[in-house]
Design goal:
425 residues; homodimer; 7-stranded parallel sheet; alpha/beta; 14 helices; globular; 4-stranded parallel sheet
């Protein structure tokens, strides 16, 4: 069977299974999730062995440390996969929820019902835990899933897939509700993203290159996450007690996450007051500052070491460093801050620090990003912190789902009509 | 300036204008809408003259009657465009609405804010009234619009565009918030659907061919409406008093609309009881029946004229006739009906006629269409009937918006965080 035939068959099976999981009871879905967790715990040794064989191959292939890190599954990692599935079982079932029912002048009652999207294709890279997470989230939201993990994790993903299938079967659900692609041929991805008859939406998880490639070629809607060039804007009415903690947490709590601040904007009126202390805090943590001419002078005069200071270029305003580097710019005030952010931001997460009500509300409304915050760290942009229970990813798209995507983002709402024999006049 | 440069400029202007209309007050948007309406009334003579010149060209080009019909603007049509804009002004403003705010254990309060999508590209065919409608809906929802009407309506669309611009200017809003493309070169469409940096979503309105072409080539999300192959299923527990009115209204109230029923399914248990009367009603109205073998016998025995009866082929189950033709099939019951609909329906609108609670609720949940109804005519699937006030179209997509799309469908929700200096632990 060639790749095209194989993927068509996978798609057909997923479509058929999607009807069954869409109609499945909450109880059956939860039993399957708990059974998957039990299977994963029971097969810890097999999962670790499969991961070991992936790791051996990765070392032979000379993959870099970061990749090997992401690929590595530990006993603790196995346990947290199992717990993740149990947490998903504990979340409320979004499917079938009826809302907003209103009686119309014609007599009909019209409302919404939350329904699964159908078949979700998930394309990801090395991390094997995504296989269990994504399977769990798709199932709980009533969707069938086609998972395509990285070729580096093939053995481990297949071992996890076996646990998932066993869990489904034990609850009387079709094993084809979650299919993990068994080939490492990259053509499989090309097929997966071009079968609108079988796949309703694609969620790519991984580096920007992967996501851009998929978005470009997909013939199916893509829920995507590109850069996280997040901003903190220190307004001239900022509360001094909040400035340093928010900048410090937003930039330095973790450097490699998408909700980490990459640019600091500060109103001219408070630059002399706040920048020296911010600069010293950042320099102490080893963060390099790429500063505009004006802020560079202030930071230099504050005695920040030369090796931590650099003149920013236009490119710096766009940059997602994912590293101990931050761009720093002095702006006239709220208008300039909003314009700068709407020009350079990746529309992920941006925060203002201000005590002024009107400016705070304008920032919330006018900054066109998926998460906009007042007096809080950008690091809060996260499905768990927002109370979603779990997240399949963070969307920087504007339609369907913005920001952290949980179970609800894997569903949509259809219209339902309760009639009593009404006809249209 | 070549087409590419021209469209890039239009896109750039739209993006800039979108920031201003997103932040515009409800009052300014409503004043602009009322001013547009006043302009349209004041320029009735110019609009009709421009339409006359389009019609003259259309006759010279030998366009068919249906097309000329859609292209024709009357004094009454001008008035109803103006009234349409006034109705949009009267609708609640969806932009900025805050909902679902919850306090999290970290102390932050997280919620949603409804926000415009940004720039909406609308591609449509002959009807000039779409120019005013679409301009009004996009403005009220805080979006900038790029409108690309049919080349047949060029003069009339430009005359309407002048009224729209004057209305925007009188309320202090940028004239570039609504741009009507001034070239008839089809390359403009190709550019419009391939500028994700300037356009956030495309809404094509027109024939299936247009929509399929656009969806295939778009590099931007498309809110699309394909077929309306709608079903009425008569369950074996249907109330006899509801059967004929619902079938009659669903099929025969209008033949050319997308929410018209194209297929009738009937449970075997009641086929003998209901089909003869249904068949006579349909035949009296001149509707041809494409019937399965079993129903053909019943209809034949009921004395329906031979020229109204035909044996259905597999293709008939897929067909959107938009004509006095209906496919008729006897099914075993609710399961077979749901399976048939989920196999052949275009996922637009499907209805069940039944007094059985559990079957009604299963139909609502398991039929995967944008509108699902119990004991009501499929003809109710419509923005006005659903209480949206106005509609930009009906979506048969599954993500973002399903079914009739009003102001809300032209917006999305971002996350907002109200903090008090919180940082992530």
């Amino acid at each position: 069977m060639d790749i095209k035939q194989y993927m068509q068959q996978v798609g057909k099976q997923a479509r058929a299974a999607s009807r069954l999981v869409a109609a499945a009871s909450t109880d059956a879905k939860n039993r399957a999730l708990l059974a998957m967790a039990a299977q994963i715990r029971a097969h810890q040794a097999e999962l670790l062995a499969a991961n070991e064989s992936d790791l051996a191959q990765a070392r032979t292939d000379g993959l870099d440390t970061a990749m090997i890190d992401r690929l590595t599954l530990t006993a603790k990692g196995v346990e947290s996969m199992a717990q993740g599935l149990e947490q998903i079982a504990a979340l409320p079932d979004p499917v079938g929820e009826i809302s907003n029912v209103k009686r119309r002048p014609s007599g009909i009652q019209v409302g919404h019902m939350r329904v699964p999207l159908g078949v979700i294709g998930i394309i990801y890279e090395a991390r094997p835990n995504v296989t269990a997470d994504a399977a769990g989230l798709c199932l709980k939201s009533g969707n069938a899933a086609i998972l395509r993990g990285g070729k580096e994790a093939l053995h481990c993903n297949q071992a996890i897939a076996a646990c998932v299938r066993a869990g489904l079967a034990s609850a009387g659900l079709p094993e084809t509700a979650v299919q993990v692609i068994e080939t490492i041929d990259r053509a499989a991805v090309g097929e997966l993203i071009a079968m609108p008859q079988y796949v309703d939406v694609i969620v790519p998880r991984g580096g920007k290159g992967l996501i851009e490639r998929i978005s470009k070629d997909a013939r199916v809607p893509v829920i995507k996450h590109l850069d996280g060039n997040c901003h903190v804007y220190i307004d001239d009415e900022a509360d001094a007690a909040k400035v340093i903690p928010i900048v410090e947490n937003s930039k330095t709590q973790r450097y490699g996450t998408c909700n980490t601040a990459e640019s600091l904007l500060i109103a001219r009126g408070v630059a002399q007051r706040f920048l020296p202390a911010i600069g010293r805090m950042l320099a102490d943590k080893g963060v390099e500052m790429r500063a505009c001419e004006e802020s560079l002078v202030i930071l230099h005069d504050a005695g920040i070491a030369q090796d931590k200071l650099k003149l920013a270029t236009e490119q710096d305003w766009f940059e997602e460093y994912l590293a101990p580097i931050i761009a720093v710019k002095i702006v006239d005030g709220i208008d300039a801050a909003i314009t700068h952010i709407n020009t350079y931001s990746s529309q992920h997460t941006d925060a203002i620090v201000s005590e002024n009500y009107t400016k705070a509300m304008r920032f919330l409304r006018e900054v066109d990003s998926s998460s906009v915050m007042v007096n809080a760290s950008t690091r809060f942009a996260d499905g768990f912190e927002y109370g979603l229970g779990a997240e399949i990813g963070i969307s920087t798209d504007k339609i369907h789902a913005r920001g952290p995507v949980g179970l609800e983002g894997l569903t949509s709402q259809k219209w339902i009509v309760f009639g009593n024999g009404e006809i249209r006049k």
